[in-house]
Amino acid sequence: MTWDPYDKISKDSLIIKELQHDGSIRLVQPNGDIQYIKDNLTHRVNGPAIITARNTQIWYYMGKRHRLDGPAVTYYDGYKEWWVDNVGVTSEFPQWAKDHDISYPFNLEQKILFKLIWES
Fold this sequence. Notes:
- There is one protein chain.
- This protein is 15% helix and 26% strand.
- It is of the alpha+beta class.
- The chain has a domain at 16-88.
- The strands form 3 sheets. Strands 1, 2, 3, 4, 5, 6, 9 and 10 form an 8-stranded antiparallel beta sheet that branches. The protein has a two-stranded antiparallel ribbon with strand order 7-8. A two-stranded antiparallel ribbon has the order 11-12.
- A hairpin with a 5-residue loop joins strand 2 (25-28) and strand 3 (34-38).
- The relative contact order is 0.09.
- The model has no long low-confidence stretch (mean pLDDT 84).
């Protein structure tokens, strides 16, 4: 299907498509789910790339579940999952946080430590 990103509504699917300032596309499904796409990948830099109608929030970076300054998935019921470069680290995170006396939300020093440990 070919469509003009400046058109607000695709006649074929009734999905609202909005071009963002960074060149990504914000898709709003009929059920209220929102997804950000860039270069055909689910992607958003400063926020969750998927937000469901029930407010589950999922962070993606270049098509991978990924977040270094908090949980990559926060479900509508409050359950959180931690992901780095599409690898789930939820089971390891609580012990790591306890060992390093870290709580969420992170301060700047804790963000740096998290990045150094989990991104390598």
